[in-house]
Specification:
By secondary structure, the chain is mainly α. It is 68% helix and 1% strand. Helix 1 (2-48) packs across helix 5, helix 8 (183-196) packs parallel to helix 10 and helix 14 (304-324) crosses helix 15 (337-357).
């Protein structure tokens, strides 16, 4: 009887989780596509057909995977998706609503479901990561990933691509394998991350503490594997796409200096979640206060390993961000997000615990 009750409770808990994560994923997908659906449709198709400008043409993994999945759908299933039983073509409202430019209904459905699936998977991974790194109650383990997913639209300020959420998944998986020291899983995921986006190679910054702790043999061993898997992959893709228009990188250093020395990033608001209801843009002083205060208050007590992965990946990314990023497009820091998510969740937990004790 007790075993049966346990199974029922476990199944109900999974139902709660899936329902919550599906709802939050649906909201974020809607906001994501409503703002950038046109851009995503064009860039995804251009990468599939090897027509995109560099450096975006280098991010080949997800577009070509989706193209492969689209081709594997049985023709009968495609007909049912596109046409009604009487032979009339279906009107899929979301294609028009999200300004999807390509005429392939099947490709839109594949991309649409892929984005939702990525967000659901990401929440389960973040929940697992929290369980393995910090102490929280069960409700916090369940709700923190959902809240984080709802905040993601604030980080998409200038553009979005089909490979963005997979980049978060790869970074999260790499962090899980890194913390568990499961190196086969780590390097397989690292390889995929590099194909997905070239900044994945910076995940190797997590191993810098080995150098500072004078563990030279272990450091150079991991450095060798990162170079062996990462650099040839990135260089080969660049070589194959060298004939395409565009540049290897987009140099925006002077634009960024001008932007960051103005008042704009600190006081900017925008309609992220609803029309005429502005929320603070990503680097608005309100957001900075909400982020920095709890982190600074409890920094010394936060998970040491996660602090290191956060610090080294952020430091390694920052120069590239200033040189090749664009203004407050924080999306380029996605490999830092999983570590920041853990640290911020832990600091908020400590903050609320301190309120109870007062």
């Amino acid at each position: 009887m007790k075993k049966k009750l346990f199974v029922h409770k476990h199944c109900f808990h999974l139902l709660i989780l899936f329902s919550l994560y599906f709802i939050t994923s649906s909201i974020t997908t809607h906001l994501y596509l409503e703002k950038f659906g046109k851009d995503i449709s064009i860039s995804t198709t251009e990468i599939m057909h090897n027509e995109a400008n560099r450096p975006f043409a280098y991010r080949i993994l997800i577009p070509h995977t989706l193209e492969y999945l689209e081709g594997k759908i049985p023709e009968r299933a495609k007909q049912k998706i596109v046409y009604k039983s009487n032979g009339e073509k279906r009107d899929i409202d979301s294609i028009e609503r999200y300004n999807w430019q390509e005429h392939s209904t099947i490709l839109f459905v594949v991309c649409y479901l892929f984005i939702v699936a990525c967000l659901v998977i990401l929440q389960f991974l973040w929940r697992y990561l929290l369980q393995k790194t910090i102490q929280l109650n069960n409700a916090s383990y369940d709700s923190a990933p959902a809240i984080a997913i709802l905040l993601l639209p604030m980080t998409f300020v200038k553009g979005a691509y089909i490979y963005d959420f997979p980049e978060l998944i790869f970074a999260t998986l790499c962090l899980i394998f890194f913390l568990k020291k499961q190196w086969i899983g780590y390097y397989i995921t690292f390889f995929c991350a590099c194909i997905n986006k070239e900044t994945g190679v910076l995940l190797g910054a997590w191993f810098l503490p080995l150098l500072f702790n004078k563990e030279f043999t272990l450091f150079f061993k991991h450095a060798f594997f990162h170079c062996l898997l990462g650099l040839p992959t990135i260089l080969l893709i660049r070589y194959q796409m060298n004939h395409l228009p565009g540049d290897i990188v987009q140099f925006n250093f002077y634009k960024n200096i001008e932007f960051w020395t103005s008042a704009k990033p600190w006081i900017h608001f925008e309609d992220v979640y609803a029309f005429n209801l502005p929320t603070p843009r990503v680097f608005n002083i309100i957001n900075l206060a909400l982020l920095v205060y709890p982190l600074s208050l409890y920094w010394n007590t936060l998970n040491k390993n996660i602090k290191q992965t956060f610090a080294y990946s952020a430091i390694s990314m920052f120069p590239l961000y200033m040189l090749f990023g664009l203004e407050d497009e924080i999306r380029v820091f996605m490999i830092v997000f999983p570590s920041l998510f853990i640290l911020y969740t832990q600091s908020l937990s400590l903050y609320y615990s301190s309120l109870k004790s007062e």
